[in-house]
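Please fill in the sequence for the structure shown.

STRUCTURE ENCODING:
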């Protein structure tokens, strides 16, 4: 993951490291190369501009120009700025205490990895001692209910489903069922579409109103770069999201979605999907990702 951008950043910072003295021109050149690397990584232009301005401003300060190892000092500034772009620190899920039900609504476009992400999250929370229930409310993608049932049986987490197309009725019944049967964490897989679609938004708005979720997690496909950011913004404007799960991070060589999502939407990436298997889920740690990018 992130191989392309990491290689470029390593090349850029290597040129400055070890130099006893660097000039303002050296800094400008390096920042310019960073700018190109970020744009090639498919980072949002506004985000790149802000990043570049702030980095230049700080790097031209006395601290870098007069540092013992100015290259290293410069790299530290870039690292801190990347960490800030990624969201500073890991943000935990909004979980209630175990004796109160927590509801998590998963939303996103078809193919982003929503159904897989729902099961991964259930698996993780079950391992942490919670008692999750999965709810199959993706009534649009033909195989979604069956897929969730298969994943649920693999991890021994029950899946609530009904054989009709009224998503609001299903989630209302699922909430009643969950509460009656002592499931303290209810994870709802909702329907996406291949692209943004008003019917989908209306359905999700109605489902969200019925659930009043503790966490509304947008599932974003890292491979789609900036497009994922635009889709996240639309979901946030229309439905309101509280966090992001970034899937297919294992296949993302560029990093554009990861680097743009937080500063473009204000919503933290809480988890990453790092493979197709059920255990391939990790909390998102900005510092770890920044270290990967800067070698
Ligand atoms: P949905 O339509 O949003 O519910 O998408 P699915 O959960 O069916 O996932 C679509 C495809 O992406 C499937 O083939 C998944 O196995 C795959 N997928 C999901 N998450 C990841 C991930 O983190 N990494 C990789 N490599 N593949 C993933």
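FILLED IN BY: designer on duty
SEQUENCE:
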């Amino acid at each position: 993951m992130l191989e392309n951008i990491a290689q470029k950043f390593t090349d850029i910072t290597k040129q400055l490291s070890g130099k006893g003295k660097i000039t303002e021109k050296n800094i400008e050149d390096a920042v310019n190369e960073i700018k190109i690397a970020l744009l090639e990584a498919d980072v949002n232009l506004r985000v790149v501009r802000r990043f570049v301005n702030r980095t230049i401003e700080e790097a031209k300060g006395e601290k870098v120009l007069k540092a013992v190892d100015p290259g290293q000092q410069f790299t530290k500034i870039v690292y801190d700025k990347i960490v800030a772009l990624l969201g500073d620190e890991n943000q935990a899920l909004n979980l209630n205490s175990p004796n109160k039900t927590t509801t998590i609504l998963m939303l996103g476009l078809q193919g982003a990895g929503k159904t897989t992400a729902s099961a991964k999250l259930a698996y993780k929370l079950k391992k942490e001692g919670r008692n999750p229930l999965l709810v199959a409310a993706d009534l649009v993608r033909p195989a979604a209910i069956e897929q969730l049932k298969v994943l649920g049986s693999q991890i021994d987490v029950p899946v609530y489903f009904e054989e009709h197309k009224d998503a609001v009725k299903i989630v209302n019944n699922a909430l009643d069922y969950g509460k009656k049967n002592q499931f303290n964490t209810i994870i709802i897989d909702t329907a996406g579409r291949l692209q943004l679609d008003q019917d989908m938004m209306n359905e999700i708005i109605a489902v969200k109103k019925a659930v009043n979720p503790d966490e509304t997690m947008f599932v974003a496909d890292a491979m789609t770069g900036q497009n994922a950011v635009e889709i996240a913004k639309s979901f946030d404007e229309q439905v309101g999201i509280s966090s992001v799960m970034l899937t297919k991070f294992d296949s993302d060589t560029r990093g554009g979605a990861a680097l743009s999502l937080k500063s473009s939407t204000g919503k933290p990436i809480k988890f990453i999907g790092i493979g197709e298997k059920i255990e391939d889920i990790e909390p998102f740690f900005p510092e770890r990702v920044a270290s990967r990018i800067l070698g």
